[in-house]
Structure formats: C-alpha cells, structure tokens
C-alpha cells in the first residue's frame, strides 16, 4: 500500500524486514533511487527525498571570500543540471554582472557584498544569492597615521607587490573599534630579512598606543607568526618597523580584527589556570589546569617561532627552560576548557 500527502509527498509502504532499493517517480520530475534502506518488521524508516525537475541548480565558490580594497576575487560556477546560460550579479564589484563561467571581480571599497548566480537550461532555471559573501577590508600601510578599526588589511610600506626599502623607521597604531573586544593580528604572509635576535630588519608589536607599551612580539624571518592578541578590550596595538642599510624582503600581509576573545584567556587563577614561577630562571615553568585536560602547549619566542611544543592529556605540565635564551615568550595553551595565552619571562 502507498499513501501520499501533498504538496511535499508523504509515502508509506508496508513491507517485511529486509534491505531495499526504493525508486520514487512523479510526473514532471526525474526518478530517484534511494539504495540500501534497511527496515524491521513493524518498524518505521523515514527518509527525506527531494525529486529534481531537471532545471539547472545554481552553486558557486571563489578562490577567497575576504580580500582588501583593490583586491580581486575569482568566482567559479559549480552549478548542476548542465546549465546552458548563466548570469552573475556582483554587489560592490568593478563589474556589476557577467555571463562568464569563471569571472574575476575587483572590489575597491571596504564592506561586505552579496553575490547572485542565476543559471538556466532547456527545462528551467534557478537563482542563488548569498548575502555578505565577500568581505573587503580597508588597506593600511606601515607609517599610516593612527586609526580606529575592526577590520583592516595591513601591509609593509610597499604593499603586496614589492619589497620594503632600506633604512626605514616607521610606525602605525590601531585602536580597537569595539570597546568590548580585543584586537587580533593574523599574518597571511611574512618575509623580513632574518638576523640574530632580529637586530637588523624587524617588526615590533606593542600591546598599547605607543612603543612605550609592553612588547608583544619582535619578528623577522619568513615563518608566518602565530596569531597575536592584545590584552585590553577596546585597546590599541602599535607596530614599529625598522630596516637596516642593506637587504630586504617582501614584508608582510596581516589582518587586524576585533575579536571577542571567546575561549581565549590570560593565564591567572581566576580562569582556572596557573603558571609558576614567572619569571623563571633555572626552574622550569609549571602549568596547572584546575579543570579539564591539556591538548597542546606551545612556547613562542618573539620572532614567532615555536621553541617548545608538546601534547598532553592531564592537568599538570612542565615547560622546560633549559637551552632557552633570556627574554620574553608567549605561552599558548589549547585545553578542553578553552584556549589560553600568557606572556612569560626567562631571566638568567
């Protein structure tokens, strides 16, 4: 027996226990077979089955969904149903529409923008719109005057297409645009001439409105640094870049983002995690988690390199200091109760 209930169709069939292939057929739609449906005597199996009328089904992707002002995005038509024609609509792009399968669109103004794709074949067509699909960030270069932001793309003095120059001494300060959030610095690319202790070319990052604020990182080399967070909601971050008289690199491409800091904590007893001693000299750091278990512990030096890494599954961990130079490090911890970061100091 088969019963149906329009408009979506609600089909019932009384059968004995076993495994079956079920084929659904309806006027105006292509048949569809659902295989290996297993049932028991007096049991009920529910499957949601949607039949296709054969019209084109829109789908698209892009090489990126976040870019900077002046940046370009390539789109890809991944539609089903063998479409014979298409029409893209781009909000905020240098072109408002396109019939190409893989168009390239340039965005000049910061903001978030929708993308629409309509596709059609001999049977019919459908449209797909994704609002806020593309995010375009404001562009800043080192040396730009201070500004307030929650979404910025930040480059060295020559931007994404050239090397920085010799004998630079530049700085930029960003103030967080949301008083309830910290600033997160995420590097997409990094290439600064490497030197011992970054005494030559270097990017210095300070946790506040000036170079008198606490130092968060001193970076050089070509390893992409770990993400860096400021410590104060609605606070500021200051970048200072210096280069010497010879040798340079491609610089950096970074994003400055307001971040809620959810599950990211400063290590202190109130947050259920303790680090001691701090500063440490010849004694290893002890890290105690009051609840939950450790997943990963990393010690990052001010060049952004992980000088120690270990996995864990308990509540107490030892971070050795033997062989490490004196200075400031960032302790980054992933645990079942959240992610933690803390500045630690080695004195010798």
Tell me about the biggest sheet?
9 strands, mixed
Radius of gyration: 28 Å
Note the total helix count. Answer: 0
Q: What percent strand?
A: over 45%
Number of domains: 4
* Class by SSE composition: mainly beta
The CATH superfamily of the largest domain is identified as: Spermadhesin, CUB domain
Q: Remind me, CATH topology of the largest domain?
A: Jelly Rolls
- Poorly predicted runs are 262-270
SSE topology string: EEEEEEEEEEEEEEEEEEEEEEEEEEE
DSSP strand count: 27
Shape: flat
Distance between the termini: 84 Å
Textual characterization of the structure:
This protein has strands at residues 18-24, 32-39, 60-62, 66-68, 72-77, 85-90, 97-98, 104-106, 111-120, 125-141, 147-149, 151-155, 169-176, 182-191, 202-206, 215-219, 228-229, 236-242, 251-259, 264-266, 273-276, 285-289, 294-300, 306-311, 316-319, 327-335, 338-346. Strands 4, 6, 7, 9, 10, 12, 14, 17 and 19 form a nine-stranded mixed sheet that branches. A hairpin with an 8-residue loop joins strand 21 (273-276) and strand 22 (285-289). It has no helices and 27 strands. With 348 residues, the chain is mainly β. The chain folds into four domains: 1-53, no CATH class; 60-137, Immunoglobulins (Immunoglobulin-like), CATH 2.60.40.10; 142-259, Jelly Rolls (Sandwich); 265-346, Sandwich (Immunoglobulin-like), CATH 2.60.40.3080. It is flat.
